[in-house]
Amino acid sequence: MARSQEATITDAERPGAGDQLWSVFEFARRYRLAKREENRLLMLYGPTASLRDLLANAQRHSLIS
């Protein structure tokens, strides 16, 4: 039972996951960010950044206005 629960834990929920370095391109693709937001994150951090920083600074804009 514990094994199946462990398999459902995402990368962001694991202890110490915020310290992992992520590709900004991969982060933007995974979280479906607009190209403009991806470029903003690239200007802030370069090609890699910690997951914690990316999650704290990424902005998703609603498609419905």
Strand content: 5-15%
Sheet of most strands: 2 strands, antiparallel
Strand order of the biggest β-sheet = 1-2
Number of helices: 4
Question: Globular, elongated, flat, extended or rod-shaped: what is the shape?
Answer: globular
Instruction: Count all strands and give the number.
Output: 2
- H/E series: HEHHEH
Counting structural domains, the number is: 1
**Unreliable sequence segments:** none
Helix share, percent: 40-55%
Output the radius of gyration.
14 Å
Which descriptors would you attach to this protein?
mainly alpha, globular, two-stranded antiparallel ribbon, 65 residues, 4 helices, single chain
Walk me through this protein's architecture.
With 65 residues, the chain is mainly alpha-helical. It has one domain (2-57). 48% of the residues lie in helices and 9% in strands. The protein contains 4 helices and 2 strands; from the N terminus they run αβααβα. The protein has helices spanning 2-7, 24-30, 35-45, 51-57; strands at residues 21-23, 48-50. A two-stranded antiparallel sheet has the order 1-2. It is globular. The N and C termini lie far apart (43 Å). 12% of the residues are buried.
